[in-house]
Known about the structure:
Layout: H1 10-13, H2 21-39, H3 43-48, H4 50-59, E1 66-69, H5 76-81, H6 119-132, E2 139-144, H7 151-163, E3 168-173, H8 188-192, H9 196-210, H10 216-233, H11 235-242, E4 246-252, H12 256-266, E5 273-278, H13 286-290, H14 317-331, E6 335-339, H15 349-354, E7 359-361, H16 366-378, E8 382-388, H17 389-392, H18 396-404, E9 411-415, H19 432-437, E10 443-445, H20 450-462, E11 467-470, E12 494-497, E13 502-506, H21 511-523, E14 528-532, E15 535-537, H22 541-548, E16 553-561, H23 566-576, E17 584-589, H24 599-605, H25 610-626
Parallel strand pairs: 1-2, 2-3, 3-5, 4-5, 6-7, 6-8, 8-9, 9-11, 10-11, 13-14, 13-16, 16-17
Antiparallel strand pairs: 10-15, 12-14
Helix pairs in contact: 4-12, 6-7, 9-10, 14-20, 16-18, 21-25
Amino acid sequence: MSILESIDSPADLKRVPVDQLPLLAEEIREQIISVTSAVGGHLSSNLGVVEITLALHYLLDTPKDKIVWDTSNQAYAHKLLTGRREHFHTLRQYGGLSGFCKREESIYDTFNAGHAGTGVSAAIGMAAARDLAEQHHKVVCVVGDGAMTSGMTLEAMQHVGGLQKDLLVILNDNQMSISRNVGSLSAYLNRTFTGEFVTHIREEAKHLLKAIPRVGDQLTRLAHRAEELAKGLVLPGVLFEELGFRYVGPIDGHNFEHLLPTLENVLKLKRPALLHVITKKGKGYEPAVKDAVWFHACSPFIRETGQPAKPSTKPSYTAVAIKTLCRLAREDRRIVAITAAMCEGTGLTAFQKEFPDRFHDVGIAEQHALTFAAGLATQGARPVVAMYSTFLQRAFDQVVHDVATQNLPVTILIDRGGLVAEDGTTHHGAFDYAYLRHVPNMVVMAPKDENELQHMVKTCLSYEGPASVRYSRGSAWGVPMDVAPKALPLGRAELLREGYDVAVVAIGITALPALEAAERLADEGISAAVVNARFVKPLDHALIAQVARQVKCLVTVEEGCRMGGFGSAVLEALSDQGIVHMPTRVLGLPDKYVEQGPQDLLRVQYGLTADGIYEEAKALYTMTVLGVERQ
Length: 631
């Protein structure tokens, strides 16, 4: 039996001799690599925090003591140590373990989080509640260095310093978030040591040391090590001490001889403390060390080579959108691309490489990204913000207040719209139709396929106001592409198929399955019209009303929330046109947080496939014409 097989709780871990912890860390890494290679997941970040996780559960009395994992995609080792080892193979699978912390899953998971920057705020809330109840347990938050660029983290830290609550923040510094860290905070340590005076002194000292016979080179290397030590021990402490924290570190996050005694001492403090721990992302698996970005959130891969198990032969929607953006940027120097620490995920690496002076990664600061774009737009630039739907939620006020009220020409490329599979609840792009369509001046689009996507990117950049185009995660349909993108008529839908019995009005990725469903209905003698709406806003009231008046009933389809979404917009349009007695059915995502699972499976689950649309349209038509309810 391995050491890991003997551990079903942190109480079992405490019986492991300290000198066996490195071996246990190897076993945990092996288990994480084995499962992640089969199902995909967040590999590199989890491999980097194994020792930190072991040390915390070894010294703390969890679940009485609370551990908050900021973002929580690095909690795989935590899951293995807290009674979920036997189910770990179900990670990120439908009905299995979540890839993130989930309070519904375990008493050891203290806070659900899939967005970076929430951890310190949640932790100080727990510490304040503890003190209110006159309890005395510890609260620890593990936060990555990338999340230090998040305004929410900094807001929380200044609050902690002011309250002076007993709280430990562990800064997991692997010098990389998802994209490489950017901004003044990540450059803080280097800036002082690259100033003109210090640079001059360094060069003079180097020449002087090298002039010493036989030992000059050794002394030069020693001086370099001393400089790096000074960066770590002196400068960061100033920043965090000013915020009211007792700063400790940096220490090696993979060395138990340093980690355990230091952590034990810091846990004795009864005030805000920050332990700065240096780790290596991907440690223990060389492919993940070499390419920590791809292995941050990877698909299943071949263990021996690190290569994807099933490389796609079709382009992704992301690739098509950014290829189009690059093409348009060659023709228009006003185009500027912006992302919030998701350069690789949003595909903007291609834009960054070709137009480095027109690319901005603002770090994990989605709110700033939108207002920064608004500022650019006031001065004649054409900013394009590429962002996941789930992360755009964080910048809603900036979209409303800073972009839309001024009717500024800011383009938002909304990646990962709709169902995003195994990342689950916190990452599905379910709400963007609903939270954008009611914003005045905002144009909201979604393409039926990748060819229409390139035209919609062009449409956004041709519009003199705020515009968004939303597209799905994963491979596109593989349709033929037009030679060049062209702007679509604003608010003009597309009639894909005429029909006189039932109409299916679809948006985005649901349009082609709706067309397939209509063909099946035709085989049964039911004439079905299909409208590819293209625009959620402005909606093509005229075409929808025209089609609605020719049929007996109408179905809307969207891969987004039903409440307040695209279907609601169509019903409003029918009401505005005086079509008030039309039997309708709105297909979309229910009023619940959607679970994790493969996209295809979830689409079946929620009736968003050709089969599901066919069944709903047939049932509605049958009920309308024959008065027969579906059994």
